[in-house]
Amino acid sequence: TIHKDPKMIGPMRVRLDTEISTPESEYGKTPLWWWCDALFMAPPVFADMTAATGDKKYLSFMDRQWDITTKLLYDPSVHLYSRDATYLDKHEKNGQKIFWSRGNGWVMGGIVRVLQELPRDSPLRPKFEDELRQMAAEMVSIQSEDGLWRPGLLDADSYPLPEISGSAFI
Q1: What is residue 163's predicted lDDT score, i.e. its pLDDT?
Q2: Among 74, 103, 105, which residue's Cα sits nearest to residue 170?
């Protein structure tokens, strides 16, 4: 349930307004949301604030920051996110890029949480729905026979034990 009482949301609104008013140049070379888990943590809060206040500036900011993080971490050829920028050039034993199951589960959960707050007619909705569909299709294609996923999504043979938290998110 979204709280609309100004006393309840006031401190969070001040915090988000501060974030929005901080020039991107102050972040330096590192994006605000520089690791994939952040897409579960921050964007839904901004979407919630728009739902609570009706002010679309929170969605606009959320969408811009999502795009910055996605441009950095998302690999559109496999529809998966790298954990953070330090993983972009790391590879599994089989030569595939490293994509962490739990991190991608966090992202998928973040997309769902954002979609829960977006109005049905939001112009942002198709982008988030498409990304979720693409990621879900990739996840189905790499799911292990035991129904779970391994920590390294594209090198299951190197991980004999499943990633329970990653599998739960997915």
Answers
A1: 92
A2: 105
Residue 37 annotated in active site: yes
Whether the predicted pLDDT of 157 surpasses 90: yes
Tokens of 100: 């962490």
- Identify the active-site residue in 37, 63, 84, 155: 37
Q: What is the pLDDT of residues 23-48, one digit of tens each?
A: 887 777 788 999 999 999 999 999 99
Q: Say which residue the tokens 């890029």 belong to.
A: 97
Q: Which helix (H) or strand (E) holds 138?
A: helix 125-142
DSSP-derived secondary structure for 89-106: T-B-TTSPBP-BHHHHHH
- CB neighbour burial string for 128-166, b if at least 16 within 10 angstroms, e if fewer: beebbeebeebbeebbeeeebbbbbbbbbeebeebbeeb
